[in-house]
Flavodoxin-like domain-containing protein
Amino acid sequence: MKVQIVYSSLSGCTRRLAEGIFAALPVADKQIFDLAQGEPALDADVVLLGYWVDKGGPNAAMKAFMEKLSGKTVGVFCTLAFWADSAHAHASLAAGAALLKEKNCLLGGYVCNGAMSQAMIDRFRAAGTSGPHSASPASEARWALLKGHPTEAEIALAAERFGERIRLLETLQSQGLEYASIAL
C-alpha cells in the first residue's frame, strides 16, 4: 500500500502534524509533500491531505488542490488556533471533506489544535480588542495556550487514526470488499 501526504502550513503546525503522521505510519511505501513546493503527482493508494484552517475551511492553496482530486481514497486533517472539540473545528474539517466527498472515497479525518501564526496575531491585535477575531483578553490567553500545539499526543492520535483506517482498507481489499466512505 502506497501513501502520500500532501500538506499546506502557515505557522508550521500542519507541517509538524503531517511529518509526525508520516513518521509514525506503519507503511513502507510513503511520501510527503509540502504543497508550497508545487502540486505533486498522485499515484498512491491513499492520499492524506493536511491544511490550516482559514475562514472555516481549507486555506486557499489546499482548497484549490482538493477541488482537482477525483477517484482517490483520501483522509483529511487540519489544524486551527481554536479548540479542536468545538463546532467551529468540526465544521472546518467537514468543509475540507465536502470538497472531496463527491468524487473520492473518504478514509477519515482529524482536527487538531494549532498555534496561531504571529502574522495573524499581529493583524488581530491591530483590529482592536472587540469582535470575533479580535485580540481580546480571552483570545490572547487562548493563543498563548495553543502555542505548544500540536502536542506529541495529538500527533500520535492522528497517526493512530489514519494507521487504523489504512489497515482496515488493506483488510477489506484483501477480502474483495470496498471501503465505505466516512461522512465527516
